[in-house]
Amino acid sequence: MNDERNDPAEPLSELFTPNPGTSNANPEGIGFWALVAEDFRSNGSDWGSQGFWTLFWHRFGNWRMSVRPKLLRAPLSLIYRFMYKLCQVLCGIMLPYTVRVGRRVKLDHFGGMILVAQTIGDDVIIRQNTTFGIADLRNITDRPVIGSGVEIGAGAVIVGRVHVGDNAVIGANAVVTKSVPANSVFAGIPAKLIRYRDPSEIRQTGI
Q: Mean pLDDT in the chain?
């Protein structure tokens, strides 16, 4: 009998709906400064953390969209665009504000991160030289959805309309072009299922 987990169902289409960037898409239920403080703790409580500063300006980029009218928001947008580019130059991390980013995300190490996903869930760890993005220039809105509790190894590439399920592990230098079931370990080029995780391996999240 085939294990149904090897054939993950196509995620709901709304998961792949691009964020138009016209509203504040920061996580609900937490204020801006509380969210920043949580990001600070998640990234080692280190003021020098490139991951923390990239997340800070990402959160700022979203928060500014709650400022009305547009005329009042204009100087905030100028600040955001400048700092967004500075994060790319100094931190080596590209994370547009239109990417929906959950809580307690850790950008572990830094450099070479191109994080153009539709969504990045809660409690995700992303390591250096990681790429999220499109797989085909003909489908420029087909970007990955990263579930909660996911761990992504250095050098991983996740591209196209793929859903990485909750608590999955993507190995270092893996190339993911198909959806990944929850609680699984994928590695290789192209990435393939290695095994399913024992519940004892899965770190506690949401704390």
A: 92
